[in-house]
């Protein structure tokens, strides 16, 4: 079967793709930026990549007509602070217009549970998209999930950050809101088993695990799984804005995402129509088992996808290709080079930089810079990295974004997502037996120049120490 997969670079799309390919399906992946799309090796013949921006109807026309089914996994919850709901509706309309012209027999949409009378803006937007998809002539299957528990999911990472960093928590009252979490493995099972299954056509289903828990109970169960003692006290005086700042400063989430999540966390997300469990013969695992599986993946360094690698986790805009060519004109550049004795050793060191490994020299200064960035509304260093020793274009790496990574070539280019009065790149490249390291800064106005000169005294030992450790 020929399957259209939208949102192929997203948290769910990255995990669904190998399942579809391993079952022999031909998959057409819709991505906005081909340069940041990484796919499983060995499936090239079954894979086709097309660049599509669902806000641009001209690019939507590149979707082929001879598809059998389509997954709609597009969400732009924090793409804009004010009008992401409008953008999601526009995308859905263009998708429906195109899909109506194809041979598709089914559209599968992953939405959120919308059973509460009062919905957040985020959940209302999901419901609006569902209604738009239903206006098409192609049968639509909607799967509505609440909190998804899995290594790398936004909800799981927030829970992990809170529990691991705060022995005592003074929390908002919405931590007493009930929800019905579901394991990522079960979400993928429902998505796959629904594919071209007539019993799911033109229907909407709630999917959730067997446990109904408050967010407070979820935090405490995570602490138990990690064998940590944690104390949680809820207070009624924390406003949504204060709650958002609380999540933003303690966890790795962006402020926009924190704001959207806080508004949704005040709404109960509990399944009402879970007939699909019986229809598809799926028995979802409980929250404890879901946590266990997620922690195993993290310990084994086998996290397939993370919300942190999505562009909404930082300030990166446009295509990765726009940042590939590191500028030289009107730039300040710190250049260093060293002869290397062992190429493989140096490349492994470069490819493991950041995250838990750190920056090899004066890590406390990198952490301080990350804290300052967080204070001024940046991403800070809490995002870390998804893999300890693998890097792909588009990945988040502390307060950097990977724009180019080629191990065989020995070249890595990072673009800064921290708050800066200008733009910054960090580049490593190996030519023959020499490692070249360059930190490039393109200032904006007088403030940019003042910034460069203010940090210049630190560059001498930070970048010098780093390159010495890399060799």
Structure description:
The protein has 471 residues and is of the alpha/beta class. 35% of the residues lie in helices and 21% in strands. The protein has 14 helices and 19 strands. The strands form five sheets. The protein has a seven-stranded parallel sheet, sandwiched between helices. Helix 1 (11-22) crosses helix 6. The longest helix has 26 residues, at 445-470.
Topology:
Elements: E1 2-5, H1 11-22, E2 26-31, E3 47-51, H2 57-60, E4 69-72, H3 84-99, E5 107-112, H4 121-134, E6 140-145, E7 148-149, H5 154-165, E8 168-172, E9 178-179, E10 182-183, H6 184-193, E11 203-207, E12 213-214, H7 215-225, E13 231-235, H8 240-250, H9 255-265, H10 276-280, H11 287-299, E14 332-339, H12 343-351, H13 363-375, E15 396-397, E16 400-406, E17 411-416, E18 422-431, E19 434-443, H14 445-470
Parallel strand pairs: 1-2, 1-4, 2-3, 4-5, 5-6, 6-11, 7-10, 8-13
Antiparallel strand pairs: 9-12, 14-19, 15-16, 16-17, 17-18, 18-19
